[in-house]
Specification:
Layout: H1 4-15, H2 24-34, E1 40-43, E2 49-53, E3 60-66, E4 71-77, E5 83-88, E6 100-105, E7 108-115, E8 137-139, H3 145-149, E9 157-160, E10 165-167, E11 171-174, H4 177-193, E12 201-207, H5 215-224, E13 228-236, H6 245-248, E14 258-261, H7 267-279, E15 285-288, H8 297-302, E16 309-318, E17 325-328, H9 329-344
Parallel strand pairs: 3-12, 3-13, 13-16, 14-15
Antiparallel strand pairs: 1-2, 2-12, 4-5, 4-9, 6-7, 6-9, 7-8, 10-11, 11-17, 14-16, 16-17
Length: about 350
């Protein structure tokens, strides 16, 4: 299973506050962990954290997992001291009322809860409708606008209160698993590779601002200019009720990471991953993406400069974009092993031109 120090890192990462554009706390935790085993580590101007192994090699491999989370931002404080907010990323408004949150301020974190009109006071026809975000507010216990303004400011970022829990034998529940579980896989792959003899340079990136347009992957990939790029993100587990397998396939927790086939995935690199998985008996699940292209850092990595050979590995996750996402730690462990063995097998002379290049293992 996952080592004790790695689990501690994962818990700290998941319990941090880092809505898109405000990832400083998360980046600090990530940077401190990578510093223990990478040849060099830096955080760039956009908030991406980059750890490097074997930096003098000409052939570059990049790994990306975004560590920003969906959240909110204060836009107004009313006379009663209640805070009104906007979404930061793709919020599922059905899950928002009653959510415990933390506002990150210059003075520290302020707890609060997202409120709405009680169901008893709603008209019958209103009870069956989702409440719009503009009709909700955040209560931080302030009794007036003046008191609230002494605690928070317009523009302060808001994240779901930390709620990391291990559930069952192998699963974890937390806010922000999308995609800190992917960022965790990237970090653990670097840690595993630091003990191996490498023929390629490896750049592991915790990317920022993915939830608002894949922005961190765009700039970091341009700066690194890799030959190969692996993105690790969450994927939709379909082992829950009312998910149509005929549209999304059968993806289960604990059966291995998803290997995707779509326009974002280089065919030759995909074949290499699958051959390595079979050689080392690493379980994986086949997935046809629910869209032709886009939605993860893979798309931006692939289209950088003259193009990058990319592959997406997805960690099956339940309840994505809610405060209680769930995934299986065995899938993360298998993703680390697969990426480690694949990168360790690279000679730096590989080519990935569809229809011309051949996979050599």
């Amino acid at each position: 299973m996952i080592q004790k120090n790695a689990m501690k890192f994962l818990e700290e990462l998941l319990n941090s506050s880092g809505p898109s554009g405000f990832e400083e706390e998360t980046a600090g935790i990530y940077r401190n962990y990578l510093n223990k085993f990478c040849d060099k580590v830096e955080t760039d101007v956009l908030g991406n954290t980059i750890g490097v192994l074997n930096p003098d090699a000409e052939f570059k491999v990049m790994l990306a997992g975004h560590y920003d989370e969906i959240g909110f931002q204060i836009v107004h404080i009313d006379d009663e001291g209640l805070l009104y907010f906007r979404p930061n990323g793709g919020i599922d408004k059905l899950t928002v009322p009653g959510t415990e949150i933390e506002v990150t301020t210059e003075k520290g974190k302020i707890p609060g809860v997202i409120g709405k009109k009680p169901i008893h006071l709603l008209k019958p026809k209103e009870r069956d409708k989702a409440v719009e975000l503009e009709d909700m507010w955040i209560d931080i216990g302030a009794e007036s606008k003046k008191e609230a303004e002494s605690l928070v400011e317009i523009g302060d970022p808001i994240a779901v209160k930390p709620n990391f829990q291990l559930i069952g034998k192998n699963r974890v529940m937390s806010k922000g698993l999308d995609d800190r579980i992917g960022a965790f896989v990237v970090a653990e792959t670097l840690r595993a590779l630091c003990k191996r003899k490498l023929s390629v340079a490896v750049y592991g990136v915790g990317t920022a601002q993915e939830e608002v347009g894949l922005r961190g992957a765009t700039t970091s990939t341009y700066g690194i200019n890799p030959h190969v790029g692996f993105a690790v993100d969450v994927g939709f587990a379909t082992d829950i009720p009312d998910i149509p397998h005929k549209l999304l396939g059968e993806i289960k927790l604990g059966k291995g990471p998803e290997l995707n086939r779509s326009a974002d995935n280089n065919v030759i690199l995909g074949k290499m991953l699958r051959k390595i998985a079979k050689k080392h008996k690493v379980p994986y699940q086949e997935a046809a993406s629910h869209r032709a292209s886009g939605g993860t850092d893979t798309a931006q990595m692939q289209m950088t400069r003259a193009g990058v050979a990319t592959a997406l590995l997805s960690i099956p996750t339940r309840y994505v974009h809610t405060p209680v996402e769930v995934c299986d730690l065995r899938d993360a462990k298998d993703a680390v092993e697969l990426l480690t063995e694949t990168i360790a097998a690279m000679t730096g002379k590989e080519t990935f031109i569809p229809g011309i290049s051949k996979v050599k293992i």
